[in-house]
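Trying the structure run again after the queue cleared.
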Amino acid sequence: MKRKALVLCGVVGLLGLLSIATGFAAEATKIKASEVQFTSATQCTYPRSPALALGLIAAVALAIAQVIINVATGCVCCKRSQHSSNSKWTIAFVCFVICW
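Done. Tokens:
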């Protein structure tokens, strides 16, 4: 069981680091106002930038990490036992909804 938990934490940690790195890289490569070229009074041209792809990779990595954590812990959709109607389960459910 400990080995499985370590592997899950490692995978989620790597996905988190990937998300951080690609998020900062997307911020660093975004188009600045001075780089926009105006072709006419009503049209402008944006140069190509890897910022969109990097931002999408960061978002997908976080979504995958979120799914892995939710499935591994048996939260809401993959529950392994019946939940009781106590306040701790209600708090856990509220946190689950907020984190998504």
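The chain has one domain: 2-99. Worth checking whether this holds up in the mutant runs.
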